[in-house]
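Lab notebook page, bench 4
Experiment: in silico fold of construct C2
Operator: M.H.
Input chain length: 84 residues
Purpose: comparison with the prior construct
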Amino acid sequence: MSRTADYYMILDEVTDAAEDAAHHPDVNDRMHAMRYLLNGIGEAVGQSRFYDPTAIAAHLVRLAVDTYVSTLRELIADRQQAAA
């Protein structure tokens, strides 16, 4: 597989896992899921053939956190709107 295909495959998995992590009802479960995701990013990038794995890992971690936070904010806003 090409490096680009590797990147997009990892990217899809990262965004899906970050969104799933935000849906856990308990904060400890959410943090456990994110810890597992961040470790997985390191392993996936470490096994890849990227030219600059450190930069790719940093980008994917930033994307995972941004996706997690935006999904969690949407869920909180939906719950508040439903309660009103």
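Observations: The helical segments are 3-22, 27-46, 53-83. The chain has a mean pLDDT of 94.
Next step: discuss at group meeting.
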